[in-house]
Amino acid sequence: MILPASLSEILEKHAGDICGHKVELKHTEPVSGGCINQSALLVFTHDFTAFLKWNPSAPPTMFQREADGLNALAATQTLRVPRVFSWSDTSESGSTPGFLMLEDLATTDGNSTIRSDYDEELGKELAALHALPAPYFGFPHDNFIGSTPQPNHPRETWAEFFLQQRLHPMIQRLRGSGKISADQTIWASQCAEAATQHLREVTEGPVLVHGDLWAGNVMRDGSGRPALIDPACYYGHREVDLAMTELFGGFSSRFRAAYETAHPLKDGYPLRKEIYNLYHVLNHALLFGGSYWSQAESILNRFRD
């Protein structure tokens, strides 16, 4: 894999700043798995490696906001996340793509090992994150869920936040993209308003959430410890993270048992889970179309007046 020359020079400089001495980029190894950005393992001299994602079409601040989310999670000292080395938007000329350079988790601590307590550790650490109170429902800045802009303007109540900053904006994006009609937009908005009435019963306060917690955003580091990547952080109700672990699967019953032992879920979670996952299903309908709108319709129908 060949990187643009201008990007290679920038990465060598940043790597040198991290190491405290000059290094050179020896080669890159492509990393698969992402559907938005290109990814690679960077191998420098002096045995320094890093993970890179880049995208010449990345929206402004996308990589910055991902870095902010990783730093916010790291500051809690509850979960393993990659250290942020550097990031940049695409240059004005377009010659240098936007990028995010991160710690290479896979090789930082040697060859990745399998730990028997991996699932339990992930559950306990997520519960520890969710035990730390946050100041309000929202976040200091907007960010992205995948490549979709995600507004985070603070709201007084959780129900108000989830309706006005999650469901309504996503429905409007679907309408703006032409994926749903005006009548469908009105109907979906009315169902969303009815659905979020059920969130008024939430008495738990805001906590920092990962925001995009599907199995593809969890990995093992070199010591076998669970680590989280690709966050879409905000201050919200902790159940949004648990709900998404069920949306696409990939999380064991041991993970869930460990979480609930440390931080039991409240009554009414099964219904709220459907509301929370509706947000992600709507986003998938926006990004990928296909059957996702039908799935969203099925969820919305449950809350039709």
Task: Give the key terms.
5-stranded antiparallel β-sheet; two-stranded antiparallel sheet; 305 residues; alpha+beta; Aminoglycoside 3'-phosphotransferase, Chain: A, domain 2; Phosphorylase Kinase, domain 1; 2 domains
Q: Tell me roughly what share of residues is in helical segments.
A: 40-55%
The count of β-strands is 11
Biggest beta-sheet profile = 5 strands, antiparallel
* Unreliable stretches: none
What is the straight-line distance between the termini? 54 Å
Mean pLDDT: 94
Outline: globular
What string, H for helix and E for strand, traces the elements in order?
Answer: HEEEHEEHHEEHHEEEEHHHH
* Spatial order of strands in the largest sheet: 1-2-3-5-4
CATH topology of the largest domain: Aminoglycoside 3'-phosphotransferase, Chain: A, domain 2
**What is the fourth-level CATH superfamily of the largest domain?**
Aminoglycoside phosphotransferase (APH), C-terminal lobe
Count of runs of 4 or more consecutive helical residues: 10
Quickly name the level 1 CATH class of the largest domain: Alpha Beta
Tell me which CATH architecture of the largest domain applies here: Alpha-Beta Complex
Radius of gyration: 20 Å
* Content of β-strand: 15-25%
The structure class reads: alpha+beta
